[in-house]
Amino acid sequence: MDETNGPPTSQTKTSQHRRRGHHKFEIKATGQAAKDYDFASKREPKKRTNVIETIGHIAKTCLGGGVVAIHESYKMCGLWSSFVLTLVFGFCISYAMYMIARSAQRMYGRVQVPSMSYPDLAQATLEIGPFQSMRKYSMCFRYMVDFTICFNLFGSCCVYQIMIARTIKQLVEGTNDVVLTGDPPLRVYILLLVIPCVCIGMITSLKYLAPFSIVADIIILKVACATVYYCIKSSPPDPFKLPVFKTVTGLFEFMGVCIFSMEGTGAVMAIENNMEKPKKIALALLGGMAIVVSIVVTIGFFGYWAFGEGSRSPVTINFPLSPFPIFLKCLFAIMIYVTYALNFWFPFELMWFYIKKKYNSEKFWFWERVYRAIFICGITIIATVFPNVSKFIGLLGSFCISNLGFIYPAFIELCLDWTDPGLGPGKWRLWRYILITVFGLILFVVGSITNIRGLIAESF
Q1: Domain spans of the chain?
Q2: Are 406 and 96 spatial neighbours (Cβ–Cβ below 8 Å)?
Q3: 155 to each of 104, 162, 165, 343, 432, how far by Cα in Å?
Q4: If one looks up domain 43-459 in CATH, what number appears?
Q5: Is 28 left (phi over 0), alpha (psi -120 to 50) or beta?
Q6: What crossing angle do the helices spanning 70-77 and 79-111 adopt, rounded to 10°?
Q7: Is 65 in contact with 156 (CB distance < 8 Å)?
Q8: 8 A C-beta contact, residue 265 and residue 193
Q9: Distance between alpha carbon 276 and the CA centroid of its chain, in Å?
Q10: pLDDT in tens, 257-315
Q11: Residue spans with biased composition (Basic residues) (predicted)?
C-alpha cells in the first residue's frame, strides 16, 4: 500500500491500479530480452532495504504469534519427530517463498513491469500463461489469492484475541490451569476484548503500527529465552524418554501449527519489492529463515520438554506466577494486541477496496470505520465460538498456507517454465510441480479435516 502525504501522482495511481487488478498484463519480451530487463533500476526511487535489513524484515514477518503455540503441537506429534520436521518445513517454506520471488522476477521481464504483488503475479500467470483456455480465469486466480490471504490474516486475529483472553484470565484467576469454564468463563473474556480491539482497529495508517513490530520481536526473543530458562530450572526428564512419535492425527495437527508459525509467503513480494538489490532475495531468505527456524525450534523443543503433557498455548501460560514471569505475560499480551492491529490492517485494506465502491467518496471516512467495527465484531464472534488456540492455528496452517505456500507457487512456476526453459529432461519440472502440489493437497485436505474436528471437539 502506498502511504503518501500529498495527492497521489499519476505514477502512484498507475501503481495502485496495477496492484488492484486494473492492469491487463501482456507479453512484451521473451528469451534473452526478458532476462536482460533491469527491473530494479525501473522502480521508483525511495529508501530501500539492504540485505541485512531485509533479513530483519523476513524474521519480523514470519515470527508471528503462532510461534508461542508450537510447543503444544510438539506434544501432539512427539518430541523428536517434531524437531526434525520443523527443520524440514523450515526449508520447504523458505523454498516456497523463494519460488514466489523468483517467479515474479522472471515475470517482470516478460511483461516489462518492475514490481508486483502476490495477487498481481497470480493474475499475470494466467493472462500470459501457456494455457489459452485458462486465461479467462486470471481474475479468479487473483481473487483466490486475495481470499486466502484475508482468511489467513483475519483468522490470525481470532487466534490473537484468544491468546490475550487466556493470558488475562490466568492473571485474574492466579492459576496455571486456564480452562474454558470458570467464573467468568474464557468466552466472556474474549467478548470483553471487542471494545479494545475495535479501538486499535480504527488506526488506519500503518506508519503508527509498524514501529511496534520491532518491540514485538524483542518480546518473542525474551519469551524464547525464558522458555529455555524455565525448562532447565524445572529439571525436565531425559528428552530421549519422551515420545518420538505419537499419532498420525497429531502429525497433521502439528504440521498445520508448524507451517503457520514460520510462514511469510503472503508478504514475500512486499519485502522483495522494497529491496535495494532484489536479486539477493535468496540470501536474505536464508538468513531470515535461519533466525525464524531457530526460535521456533527453541520454543517448541524446550517448551514441550519442560512442560510435557501439561503444555498449553500460549507458552507464557506455562510460566510460573512470580513477578518477572507475570511481567513477561503482560508484555506478551500487549505485543499480541499490537500484532492484532497489524494483522487486521492488511486484509481489511484488501476488502475495503471492493466494499468502498458502493459508497460516495465523501462518506468513505465514516463507512470505513463502520466496516472495521463490523469485521472486528465478526472476528470476536468466531473466536468466542471456537476458543482453542492450537487447533485454530493448525486449521489456518493447513487451509491457507498449503495453498499460499505450496500449491499456488508451484503452479505459477510451472506456467513460467512451460515454454522457457521447458520441462527439462524427463519432464522433471513437471514432476517437481506434481510432488509439491500433492503434498499441499494432502496437507490441505487431511490437515484441515483433522484440525476442524479437533476444533469442534474441544470447543463444545
Answers
A1: 43-459
A2: yes
A3: 27, 11, 16, 9, 30
A4: 1.20.1740.10
A5: alpha
A6: 120
A7: yes
A8: no
A9: 24
A10: 999 888 888 888 988 998 999 999 999 999 999 999 999 999 999 999 999 888 888 88
A11: 15-24
